Amino acid sequence: MMPGAARIRALFEREQIEGLATDHATAQGADDLLRGEGWLRAGRVAADASGDELLWAEYPVSRRTPILTTVSLPGLWATCSCMAIRFPCRHIIALLLSDLNEPLPAVDAPDWPDLTGWRTEVRSKPVGSEIAPSPEREAAVIAGMADLRLWLSDLAREGLADLSRRGRAALAGAANRLEDAYALEAARALRELAVIPGSGTDWPERLLPGLGRLALLCEAFRHLDGLSPGERGDILAAAGFFSPATGERVSDVWHVMGQVVEVENRVGRSRTWLRGRATGRWAGLEQAIPAGQLRGTCLPAGADLRGELAFTPSAYPLMAQPVGPLEPVSAEGDAPAVHTDIDAAMRGWSAALALNPWLRRFPTILHDVWAEPPSLTGSPWRLRDRSGRVLPLPPQFGQGWSLLALSAGRPMTLFGEWDGSLFTPVSIFAGGWRPLSGWKAVV
């Protein structure tokens, strides 16, 4: 069997490895490591009969223990002891690029305690296995939502008038309690609402729908026991608890469409979207990113991975977990298209929402769209298709001018997430899917 490093060099282009950077700072940091003094020492543990290899390196840190970085090949399971909150970090990307430029020497594994039995670990660690649903965590989420229901009831009795003075602190405090209960999605929704009180004369009208949605979610939690497994899973996920992947299993060659990394309170979480070449199924894989304990699977956009996924219970299953390691393979042709225009994309969203009304993110491909700059100060970038339909981009989206420059004014194909109000571009099709996250915006 071809050694893991050789398979990676055969399957992935340098641009795909560079595209693993989830922001410009990480991409620049990896480039600086490659051009600087680099590692204290580095090498490769040679392949066994299975073809698995391990890249490892130590990076110097002034007056501190060196940073220890590993990447197993060809599965791309990586670890790093740095304090980054984005995965993969600059050290992991630099190590992969260094071996891609010139194969690292084959040496014995260093005597790091964590490397004991690494071959067994990488074969038993599917993507997302770091997120471990447990009955205790589920119980904490349920209790946290019960507390939120009481808080919302008190707020309704007291009225909203005083929120313009104490709104942000009051809502932030409730969000902190939800985070302590692991109800991270509900906490994020409450933090988004916390900036509304006092922001204009119509702030109560803008605040009430969000509070009403949370109140409806709290009410749904009171009836969990009477729901189907799919409905129950959707309600738990709406609060932030992802049930174990005990649903349908699907085997396919999965095409990596792109990755989204969210960071809140020094805790990162990545979401990678895949699409089955044969089945056309969408699948989202989530990984936790605790600072100082970086570990997970690197999934370059445009890669093809053969394996079996188990979906989490849902009325419209999207989130999944690999049943075992995903094997990088070579597949011919582009990933099959899904949506042809904005109208078709919205029909897909409506069909999904009819089954799961708690859905907050929907993977979407848009063909033949143009990027339009803001027409007025403070207005968002937009995407327009051939029919004239438009979708707004998030106000914080920073790659608008890059999209305009890359497309040279011509129509382009984008993959991203639609949340019902805004479309967030994740990848662009340019001879293959390429991520937008590592590019620096043109300003």
> What series of H and E elements makes up the topology?
HHHEEEEHHHHHHHEEEEEEEHEEEHEEE
User: What is the general shape?
Assistant: globular
Q: Kindly give the count of domains.
A: 4
Q: Could you tell me the number of beta strands?
A: 17
What value does the average pLDDT take? Answer: 86
Total helical segments: 12
Q: How large, in whole angstroms, is the Cα Rg? A: 23 Å
> Which regions contain 5 or more consecutive residues with pLDDT less than 50?
none
Give the class from helix and strand content and strand pairing: alpha+beta
The helix fraction, in percent, is 25-40%
**Oligomeric state of this protein:** single chain
- Percent of residues in β-strands: 25-35%
Q: N- to C-terminal separation?
A: 48 Å
- Largest pleated sheet: 6 strands, antiparallel
Structural description of this entry:
Helices cover 34% and strands 25% of the residues. With 443 residues, the chain is α+β, with helices and mostly antiparallel strands. It is globular. Strands 5, 6, 7, 9, 10 and 11 form a six-stranded antiparallel sheet that branches. The protein has a six-stranded antiparallel sheet with strand order 14-13-12-15-16-17. A five-stranded antiparallel sheet has the order 1-2-3-4-8. The model has no long low-confidence stretch (mean pLDDT 86). A hairpin with an 8-residue loop joins strand 9 (304-311) and strand 10 (320-322). Helix 3 packs across helix 4 (90-101), helix 6 (135-158) crosses helix 9 (203-221) and helix 8 packs antiparallel against helix 9 (203-221). The protein has helices at 4-11, 14-18, 24-35, 90-101, 118-124, 135-158, 163-180, 184-194, 203-221, 229-239, 342-355, 400-407; strands at residues 41-45, 53-59, 67-73, 77-80, 249-264, 267-276, 282-290, 294-297, 304-311, 320-322, 327-329, 362-372, 382-385, 390-392, 412-418, 423-429, 433-435. The protein has four domains: 4-124, no CATH class; 135-239; 249-329; 342-435, OB fold (Dihydrolipoamide Acetyltransferase, E2P) (Beta Barrel). It has twelve helices and 17 strands.
